[in-house]
Task: structure prediction
Amino acid sequence: MKMDSAAVEIDGSVMEGGGQILRVSAALSCISGSSIKITKIRAGRSSPGLRPQHLSGLQLVSDLCSGSLQGATIGSTDISLTPGKIRSGNHTADTQTAGSVCLLLQVALPCTLFADASSQLCLKGGTNAEMAPQIDYTVKVFKPIVEKFGVNFDCDVRMRGYYPKGGGEVVVTVNPVKELQPVTMMERGNITKIYGRAFVAGVLPYKLAKDMSAAAVRTIRKEIKDLYINIQALQEKEKACGNGNGIIIIAESSTGCVFAGSALGKKGVYADKIGIEAAEMLLRNIRHNGCVDEFLQDQLIIFMALAKGRSRIRTGAVTLHTQTAIHIAEHLTQAKFTITKCEDELSSNVTFIIECEGSGASNPNL
Result:
């Protein structure tokens, strides 16, 4: 193909060096219309190259943009994507494993925003899986914040799926936009609400859910004394496939910031420990006084890069995932990021401001 000479080359092993490089690159290639060639994919990982969930994510993007995809096989370390026109309508992606539906959404959502009409994504795999956001995080934390950019999507959890089987199914409906608006989140305000869900599914006893919830509440109580904390203990019934347990706890602030801590059960780990792990993660994310937690931070970079105008977001320590997303976004768009450190005289908090002059991507199909 003659296009290949013009492909933008991306080193898949730089910085964080994981699947995130693939997701950000593929989505931006799809939106910008420029071909990409990614080499050394996940080179430093214990099982290098494409895993099933990366493969299904790339196939989904290629399908969304009527593209041509080369090198897309399990274990492959080099792929190239030549995008075509973004197609609205129905698209399905199935990891056939417990690969995360939330990561499939991360790669597909930005693309569908630039279609000519609304899209429906049927995503199959794990909904509450390790090394990925839980679907509850996507709905309760990611969704309300990304909607500030003008994104509008709906998420219907039809079936929950857990490691190792998967079998979950989520249907996401996305409306296109003409362009994305920049977002400013600089004031955290006070934490006004803390709530969550502790769940068991399959053969696991309900007592596990109650133990996770109680341990989490006790842990948060030590630090935050004046708020009612409501963590529901749930037995997942008909809408769950396989066995699993876990917890997610959400905190909301007076200025509309949302944070989370979560954990999933593993064989041989006491339920209390899972509850405490999630609670400590939440506390860590509200101590720094930033406006987003460490997981949302990198997920917002692509939207800041595409928006028209200047976004400014106050965060805690900047993660390697975030630095990686910025590196790729600057490589594939005209966006320009700056990170400034702010010392707070009143406390020991160090926060950072991630600022972006967005590329102002406009939807040619609308």
